[in-house]
Recover the amino acids of this structure.
């Protein structure tokens, strides 16, 4: 996947899913991980509806496995939000990004690096919705967190 071999990566994940379905129940964490990988591949290939459907399925599974307050759930919320934002569903993306932010704040605290990423993503959604004040607020907060963590000249800024 990370090498750009998306077709091969999808085929391998499909094979893994077939084996997992023979060995584990539908709601098993390994099945959720494989489905999430497949969603990322679909998204990378521009198959946004397929990616969205897979992410929604994974989200339901992860919430059943871990509960709503878990880093895996926040990650899937973020990925789903990215996908629906690409589809132009900006209000839905903002709600999902907000849930990811709130989950990570509860799980990790307000100074974790994921919070800066969540704020940045929420700011992107606000910008796409035309809420420039909201976007500026979230993006500024994200930048401030990154500067405090990494310094003013770090590549992650």
């Amino acid at each position: 996947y990370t090498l750009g071999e998306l077709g091969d990566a999808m085929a391998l994940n499909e094979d893994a899913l077939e084996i997992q379905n023979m060995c584990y129940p539908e709601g098993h964490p390994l099945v959720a991980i494989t489905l999430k990988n497949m969603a990322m591949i679909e998204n990378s290939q521009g198959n946004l509806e397929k990616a969205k459907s897979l992410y929604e399925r994974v989200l339901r599974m992860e919430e059943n496995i871990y509960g709503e307050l878990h880093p895996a759930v926040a990650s899937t919320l973020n990925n789903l939000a990215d996908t629906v934002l690409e589809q132009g569903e900006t209000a839905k993306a903002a709600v999902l990004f907000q849930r990811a932010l709130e989950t990570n704040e509860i799980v990790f605290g307000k100074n974790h690096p994921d919070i800066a990423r969540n704020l940045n993503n929420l700011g992107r959604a606000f910008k796409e919705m035309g809420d420039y004040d909201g976007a500026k607020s979230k993006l500024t907060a994200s930048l401030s967190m990154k500067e405090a963590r990494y310094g003013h000249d770090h590549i992650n800024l």
Q: What stands out?
A: DSSP finds seven helices and no strands in the chain. The chain has a mean pLDDT of 93. The longest helix spans residues 48-66. The two ends are 26 Å apart (CA to CA).
